[in-house]
Design brief:
globular; 22 helices; five-stranded mixed sheet; alpha+beta; DNA-binding
Amino acid sequence: MYILVSRTVDGNVAVSTLTDTGAARSPSRSLSTAEFLGFVRDHEALMPRWVWDDTARWYPQLLAAGIRVQRGHDLRLCHVILRNSELTATSQLARAAPGVWDSASVPDSPAAVSNDTLFDLAFGAETSASGGIIAQDRGVGGTQPGDVDAYAELISQLDAVASCAEPGRLRLLLAAESAGALIAAEMQFAGLPWRSDIHANLLTAELGPRVAHGVRPVRLEELARQIRAALDDASLNPDSQQDLLRALRRADVAVASTRAWELKKVTHPVVEPLLEYKKLSRLLGANGWHWMDTWIVGGRFHPEYVPGGVVTGRWATRGGGALQLPKQVRGAVVADDGWKLVVADAAQLEPRILAALSADTAMAAAGRGKDLYEGIVTSKVVETRAQAKVAMLGAMYGATTGESGRLLPRLARAYPRALALTETAARSGERGDIVTTRLGRSSPRPDENWRATQAQAYDPAASATDERRARSQARDWGRFTRNFIVQGSAAEWALCWMAEIRKALWDLERPDEKRVIDDTMTGPAPAFDHSPHLVFFLHDEVIVHTPAEFAGEVTRIITEAATTAGRLLFGDFPVDFLLTVATVDSYAEAQ
DNA sequence: ACGATTCGCGCG
DNA sequence: AAAGCGCGCGAATCGT
């Protein structure tokens, strides 16, 4: 059963019920926001799939009211997939002219104030000034898809899937993508446990006492002094790459840029303080006191996750740099008293995905029950684990030179099917064709400029430069499609993994628990205050925050979910998806 | 003065 | 030329 949810012109919420095929639809009911909350609460027991234009617009207000839903269908995210998928290329949906569902983001509406409401409810009114950090800037202007649009869109999507050659793949992808959207909203709401006191101590130990935003801390000031002395330039600003490069050249330091890796290659008294300056300057700028003040609220880090934010299907984040959380500061991620963090990451995920995609049983065997790179060494393909890793990455990213390039022929001999798949994907991209992931997400087509450059190279009057540029550009796009098919399929595995984890954690919850919103609350968010829940996701890694007594059960759930995800994508193909799982108090312990 | 672009570096 | 993919972010710098 589907329940279609949309906004009416007068600001109410329209709901109607559909059968699984979309064939029969109940009359639409118009509800106030308060009535809508009650409606969802009452109907969730029927386990419907809630259909709405954009999970990020609807779900936060439900979470704020202590309501979670088990299943969703995000029309916007699913539309993007179906619009571009090779599998649905002949559908009405894909052939129609671009419309509201193709705009970059579903436009904002009066409902967006719920973001501030959410913040007030969850964290207390005194924080409302910073409330906008959740889900703001989702776009302005334009028309919001209404009741009729949403219904027509759902029917169009169901039709596109039903009429394609392998509907099972896309059905799974759309369900996983939609589950991801629910998880993203829940993780943003719950937040990652963050100890500001530990973080602040770390900053002071590294940088010196706290200073105002824009002021250089004492440790950085001291290093700047040493750099100026070493380069004999009393007015040098080490934050200016241009100044720095000029000063380095004056001092006869042979570097083409100020990048750290390049500085490490040369010997000069300035190198040590300069590298230290860069490291600490990065810490201050990216995760310093200002970051802490902006992003840590009520002992939680609440990044905005953006499902489908990357063309390959990976998630992106907006604000806070959640997907770049440096190892340096992970010690501040600490479980609440009586709670644990269960940290799990998929070992060598992309090579395993490649082995399964290409049905390369030899490569899959190399990873059976053990580290896949070690398995490649055991099979005598290369000598060391480091070589196996660099060779595999080279195969998936399209390396042609260096150690990686030199090792590729050995990899190709041992794993011809896997390497043939990446090569075929690269050739498709070079021709301007698209490639498609395991579940049916297709790569974008290159833009007009790209095609024009290629066409130009075929002109009899084309210069050698034209041809070189066209060839180079074609290879660039080939490396993109080569990687797309692996990275995108790995993202699908990760979505399925997470969706299975969420489902199993849900079943752990005790149904009789009543959750109450208390505006003086400072601990975990209301919908998650007693039970294990996902708090972080990083491409191939998840963190579950759990009462200590459930940690063993959570570990089992995460491990079984990995096996289930592998089966969902690859059926009986014998490939293992191994995890490293750790139950810890602090994220820093899990590395 | 201010938005767009580039550099450099963090993560997978 | 960090040899090879995908991102976000802050500061400096460029362009208007």
